[in-house]
Structures are given as structure tokens and as C-alpha cells.
Amino acid sequence: MGSVQAAGSVRARYLVYFQYVGTDFNGVAAVRGTQRAIGIQNYLEEAAERLNSVVPVRFTISSRTDAGVHALSNAAHLDVQRRSGRPPFPPEVLAEALNTHLRHPAIRVLRAFRVPSDFHARHAATSRTYLYRLVTGCHRPDELPVFERNLCWALQADCLDVAAMQEAAQHLLGTHDFSAFQSAGSPVPSPVRTLRRVSVSPGQASPLVTPEDSRKLRFWSLEFESQSFLYRQVRRMTAVLVAVGLGALAPVQVKTILESQDPLGKHQARVAPAHGLFLKSVLYGRLGAASCTLQGPQFGSHR
User: Fold this and answer.
1) Does residue 138 share a domain with residue 99?
2) Cα–Cα distance for residue pair 202/220, rounded to 1 Å
3) Which of the residues 66, 79, 118, 262 is marked catalytic?
4) Is 262 a catalytic residue?
5) Is there a binding annotation on residue 231?
6) Which CATH number do you get for residue 131?
7) Domain identity same for 86 and 157
């Protein structure tokens, strides 16, 4: 679980789960150099400086999220090498220390685990689930309660054809070339992905709205599960499913879009706003010598 380093110090690797409201950040990844934009990783690594590791602590993020995107539970691994004679931090102490020194209130470390020295938070993930939140019945921006702004996509419509959206979603399930739903900017060896689950359902009524607002506003949840996703794939699939729900596309047209493998078509080029998207969970399978299954805190399906 750790490797002996120079001068007798021991390096320990940890997997940490953390959450954040992404509104104020340039995404999760650290911004290096003199740029003014800041990522969540910058704050995590700044907090980790207080651990007094012999070598600087760097977070390897499991799932990169864009500016404005939130996470109920993201994950990362990090190595901490304490000075000679000092034992590795217990995971719960590490998590508490990081939270103590985090300087931004929109970030929180949830849990930490010791993992093998060859564990990789991005490559070892077996499942990632994203949640997208929609709201209907809001015809002007000022009709959305302030507590829900930047946390959902307010559609200027009274309702959605959820049955049509569910029918359309079935065309996305399984293993496909998802080129039609990939944005340029993050090249990958292959655009083939396996979408294990996609759901469209009424969302949980928001406790942050007044009784008067709750009578006209309806919340909806879209969930997508895969081992990995292409750049902006979830937001582009969401935009197409919303077009189906609004009657702008027929369900069968989603299959045509998928098979076109064309990311620049009239409908598939649309991207749902970042602020409605949440990384809900990152799961890991059995970790060999660790002999355990690691998963972060589980969150309700908002149904």
C-alpha cells in the first residue's frame, strides 16, 4: 500500500472523493501559469500543501468537468510522502485535514481510502454517472427561484413529452460510435463508447421554491451511465433529447443522428448549458491486493 522512498520516508497513495458547485470555476482541472482562471484542482492542491509532504502533492482527477459543471461526487488519487519516521495519514485524518485547509466554500472532500501505489483514479474507474436537471414552467429568467439558478436548465416550455424522450433514449443505449455527440477539443483514440443506462424521469420537487412556484414549475432528471464519455457527450445528448421532448425532433431521428457520426449536423451541434449538469458518481471495481470495492457516497436518483 506504500513504497519506501529515499531517507526512509514512505509514500502512500489515496483515493479521495470530493464534491463542488462548479459555478465559480474554470472546470475541475488545475489552471497552471499566470492565467486568472482557477480550477477546483488548484484549491485541492493548495490545501494539500499543508500536509507537509516531502514531495509536492498532485491530484490526478478521475473525471474532468467543464466550467460551470457541478459534481455530487468526483474522485482523484494523490500521493503523500511524509518525513522519515512518520506513519502514513489514516484516510479519515487526510480527508479532515484537506477540508480544514480548503479555502473555497464550494468544494468539500467527502471520503478518502488507501489504495495500491499503482492505482489510477481515471483508468481504474468502472462506471461514471451524470445527472442533468431540467425545469419547465419558467418563461422568463427571473421566474426561476434564486436558489435554483446555475443548478438547472430552465426551458421556456410548460411541459415535455417524456414518453417520446424515453423512446428516443433507447436508441442511444449500447455500444456505438458516438462521434455525432462529441465536441472538438479533446481528441481520443476511439469515439466508441458503451452507454449502459439512460433514464428520463420526473425530478424531485425542489425544497428551495415557494409553494406558489412549485405549482407551476416542474423538475426533470436525465441520467447517463457509462465507463467513460466523450468530450461534452452528455450535454449534447441532453440537448437532442430535450429537442425531442419539445417536439422539434421525432424519437427515430435520434437514431439517424447517431448513425450519421456527424458532430456538425443541424440538431446534434446543440449543447445543453453547463450549469444543469452534475457528475453524480464514479465507481471502482475490486482492487486486487486491496481486496475491496471502492465507491463514493451514493446519491438519490431525484425521482
Assistant:
1) no
2) 4
3) 66
4) no
5) no
6) 3.30.70.660
7) no
